[in-house]
From TrEMBL:
Keywords: 2Fe-2S, Iron, Iron-sulfur, Metal-binding, Nitrate assimilation, Oxidoreductase
UniProt entry tagged with the keyword Oxidoreductase: yes
Protein name in the entry: Nitrite reductase
UniProt cross-references to PANTHER family, sorted A to Z: 3-PHENYLPROPIONATE_CINNAMIC ACID DIOXYGENASE FERREDOXIN SUBUNIT, FERREDOXIN-RELATED
InterPro entries: Rieske-like_NirD, Rieske_2Fe-2S, Rieske_2Fe-2S_sf
SUPFAM superfamilies the record matches: ISP domain
Length: 109
């Protein structure tokens, strides 16, 4: 696992997504009303809508392109649509949010 420094916890707005680039991977980062941080792949599995630009409601984000509803905890697209997005682990250290991605050699295997 490789950990990427994203943004300070205090600098991330509630219920508004932020695009974070971790080398070649684009991640959508969210701070929910509860204060929970979630990180998911930034592109919708339907037609690549930018999920960081979606509307957050509770623990879900609605894709800005065609309104598919995605669970930020599991990454699952909600019925009647199907599919899922990758979710990434996060940790907070000294007020800084870090996103964990598989290391390059883990992704190759
Ligand atoms: S691109 Fe996300 S719902 Fe169509």
């Amino acid at each position: 696992m490789a950990w990427y420094a994203a943004v300070a916890y205090e600098d991330l707005a509630f219920n508004t997504g932020k695009t974070i680039r971790c080398d070649a991977t684009e991640v959508a980062l969210f701070k929910l009303s509860s204060g929970t941080i979630r990180a998911i792949q930034n592109r919708c599995p339907h037609k690549d809508g930018v999920l960081a630009e979606g509307i957050v409601a509770g623990e879900h984000v609605f894709c800005p392109m065609h309104d598919r509803k995605i669970d930020l905890m599991s990454g699952l697209v909600q019925a009647p649509d199907t599919g899922c997005v990758t979710t990434y682990p996060v940790r907070i250290e000294d007020g800084q949010i870090y996103i964990g991605l598989p290391a390059a050699k883990e992704m190759a295997s």
